[in-house]
Amino acid sequence: MGEVEIRAADNINFSIKKGEFVVIVGPSGAGKTTVLNILGGMDTATGGTLTVDGKDITAYDSRQLTGYRRDDIGFVFQFYNLIPNLTALENVELALQICKDPLDAKKVLEDVGLGDRLDNFPAQLSGGQKQRVAIIRSLAMNPDVILFDEPTSALDPQGRAEVMNIIKQLADMGTTIILCTHILSDVERTANRIGIVRDGRMAVEGTMAEIKDQFARNDKKIIMGIFGDPNSAIQSVNKCTGGRFYFDRQRAIFEIPLEYDENEQIKAQQIINEINSAGLTLSLFVIENKTLEQIYMDTIG
Question: Helix, strand, or coil here: 75?
Fold first, then answer.
C-alpha cells in the first residue's frame, strides 16, 4: 500500500494581537496541539509562515528556535511536568536559571495564593495547585506569549476553576495567551477570540459575539411560560407570529422562533402586549441564543 498523507494543520491562517486571550477548540485529532507546537517552536511547519513580533519564526535554524523557546514562549501542558523531589518554589526557580529577565519566583507564587505551599513537594499538592505551579513556572520566565495545551483536562471541577481563575488573571494583566481545550465552559465568557479547528483547518474564528452573530442568528427563539387559559394564550401568540410557534401544553411553555432579520426586542414587546391584553400572566420570558457548545457541535459535525 502507498503512503497516506495526513495534514495535521492545513492552510490555517489567523493573527493574534499582543495582550489577547485566544482559545482554539476542536475534537481530538483536529490539529490543535500541532498548531500550538508550531507556535511554540517545538514543531516546524512544512509550508507557510509564522511571524511573531515581526520575526519569521519559520526561517529560524535550530539554535534560533532554542532561543525563541527559552526567551519568548512559555508552555503549559495538560500534565504538570514538575520534578518530584523539588519543592514548588524550587521547581519554578530551576526553570528561571536559563532566562534573560525572569520574575521573582517567590513573589509570583505568593501573588497567586501559593505562598503557604512554597516548601511543599508536588506529591503534597492538589491537581489544581500543581497546575498553578506549572503556570507560574512559565509566567516567571517572563515570556511574550504563554501557550496552554489542555491545562484543565486532568482536573476536577474545583481544580479547573482554580486554574482558569489564574489564567483569567494573566489575561487581565495583558499577557498574550493562546489556549487549546475541548472544555468549552471554561472559556466561553473569558476569551477575547475563539477559533474552532476541524480536520486541520480553522473552520470558525472570531469573537464570541461575532461567532454567535454569524452562526446563531437563525436560531434565536423566545421561550415563554404563562399562567391562565392556554387557549387564550395560543390565540394571542398566533396574532403576533402567524402560527409560527410550538406550545407544550403540559408545561404551558411556548417556543417562538425569531426570523433572521427580525428585531427581537420589538417582537418580544408585541407578544408581551398581547398576553397582557388577554389578561394572562407570564411565568417565564427569555430570548434564547445558541450556545458555543451548540455552535461547536454544528461545526465539527
Answer: strand
